[in-house]
Amino acid sequence: MHWGMAMTETDRDTEEKLEALFKQARSAPEEPDAALLARVLGDALAEQAVGAAPARGNAGARRGWGLWAALGGWPAMGGLATAAVAGLWIGFSPTLGVGDAVNTVVAGGEDDVITLVDLSGGFGFEFYEMALAGEEDAG
Amino acid sequence: MSMALDDSSDLPDEALLTLFANGDRQAARALTLRFTPVVMAHAYRLLGDRAEAEDVAQDAMLRLWRIAPDWRAGEARVSTWLYRVVANLATDRLRRRRRAGPPLDEVAEPVDAAAGPAERLQDKARAGALQAALDALPARQRQAVVLRHIEGLANPEIAAIMEIGTEAVESLTARGKRALGAALVARRDALGYGDD
After folding, report:
1. Which fold has domain B109-196?
2. Structural domain B7-101, CATH architecture
3. What is the mean pLDDT of each run of 10 residues along chain B (196 residues)?
4. Residue ranges of the alpha helices (H) in B5-49?
5. Same fold? B7-101, B109-196
6. Judged by CB atoms within 8 Å, which residues 15-74 of B form the interface with A?
7. Is A30 within 8 Å of chain B by CB?
């Protein structure tokens, strides 16, 4: 019985000493020096630079971005839309007539035609003017 | 290098990580200052070697930078994820160390308190003794004891970090503490505990 109590006291004493050591360790953590912080931040900025480059990502994405860039990006898309719309109109016009093409493809009223003109830019607008002139001539 | 604190330092971890992924340099700075001390301290406690701990800390942070664009919000706390990465990297290093050379407790004997009467020296000796005793624990016990008693985390978070149940955490910490206590008792004279 006495031995058991003595063991308990020893355990408690060890526990207290251990807790004191933990407390000391908590109050004095191993800290990073300026050189390590600089290396870590350097890695961070380098990874951000890699992430910002269009080359990052899978091969499909790279090909997509390459095609996009080769086409000139967003600024070129206005011209491409113009060409596509003009091509559509030209494709229809010989057989249906320009006035029919507008009515069939756009399938709507005046608002839709205006939207189409906005997308296609100056060239499309000229074409639209020509189409209207053609309609007037036909009418 | 100047690393002044800024407004970013008040943002939650995940918000900073999102900003970082979007190329925000202040977020990179704030995350560096917030988490490098955490991973450094933890790596040192698991490895007992400053140079190796620095390597692990840098590597763990690099993994954070790389996962940032794919980070899934709400799945895990950033700190939990980092503690886990540090533990895995430290375990790899300890395995390599075991294959390459003698165990640490043969080369990192704590400073003998008899070397000087100053309290500072005794504190250093005791800190060295604690680290040596931690180094001698099995890896999982060491990880659990460090997370619980030095990092001061609650058992549920430790369970998440170690990917085990809270009962297993309690068992590991209890066994680890018993082993630490035995190691300290064996060195009580050298550590100035002899006349208590």
Report:
1. Arc Repressor Mutant, subunit A (1.10.10)
2. Orthogonal Bundle (1.10)
3. 58 95 96 97 95 97 97 90 97 86 51 56 84 93 96 96 97 95 82 64
4. 13-21, 25-47
5. no
6. 20-21, 23, 25, 28-29, 31-33, 36-37, 40-41, 44-45, 50, 53-54, 57-58, 61-62, 65-66, 68-69
7. yes
